[in-house]
């Protein structure tokens, strides 16, 4: 039997991506990031001269909050996912050499949103934006069939 060397094997022209990666790619394009960050920024802690532990960037915490919401992950499960699942870490904007927010940091962020009545506003704005694009999400499902058209369009544009 003749063995085929790896260099002689046919290479796939299409790189396979997971449904999770496709979903996050679509959400990255659809979510109104600037508007959401503008809403939350006044309530988010700023660095002080007193010192103390600096907060994680607002955009990172918002993206983690949404990952938790979409995939129904507790704070400890989200922290583990950020260590274990490369596509989630990338979506959150955390590089390999950067620290992952602790489950306590995630809890504090959610408390900030609750204290300033921002949680419902954030989720409503995302839902309204998705509705404009004829996309509906069923929380706990990785990809709703309505996303296939958007994911397909975004892959075609690459």
TrEMBL record:
Positions of the Transposase InsH N-terminal domain: 20-111
InterPro entries xref list: Transposase_InsH_N
Highest taxon above the source species: Bacteria
Pfam family, one: DUF772
PANTHER family: TRANSPOSASE INSH FOR INSERTION SEQUENCE ELEMENT IS5A-RELATED
Protein's UniProt name: Transposase InsH N-terminal domain-containing protein
Organism: Glaciimonas soli
Taxonomic lineage: Bacteria, Pseudomonadati, Pseudomonadota, Betaproteobacteria, Burkholderiales
């Amino acid at each position: 039997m003749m063995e085929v060397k790896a260099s002689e094997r046919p290479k796939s022209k299409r790189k396979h991506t997971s449904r999770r990666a496709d979903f996050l790619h679509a959400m990255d394009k659809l979510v109104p990031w600037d508007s959401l960050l503008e809403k939350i920024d006044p309530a988010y802690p700023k660095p002080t001269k007193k010192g103390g532990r600096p907060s994680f960037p607002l955009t990172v915490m918002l993206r983690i909050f949404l990952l938790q919401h979409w995939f129904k992950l507790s704070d400890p499960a989200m922290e583990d996912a950020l260590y274990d699942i490369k596509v989630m870490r990338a979506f959150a904007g955390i590089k390999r050499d950067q620290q992952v927010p602790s489950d306590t940091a995630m809890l504090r962020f959610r408390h900030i949103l609750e204290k300033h009545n921002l949680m419902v506003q954030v989720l409503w704005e995302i839902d309204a934006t998705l509705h404009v694009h004829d996309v509906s999400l069923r929380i706990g499902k990785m990809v709703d069939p309505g996303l296939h058209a958007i994911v397909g369009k975004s892959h075609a544009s690459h």
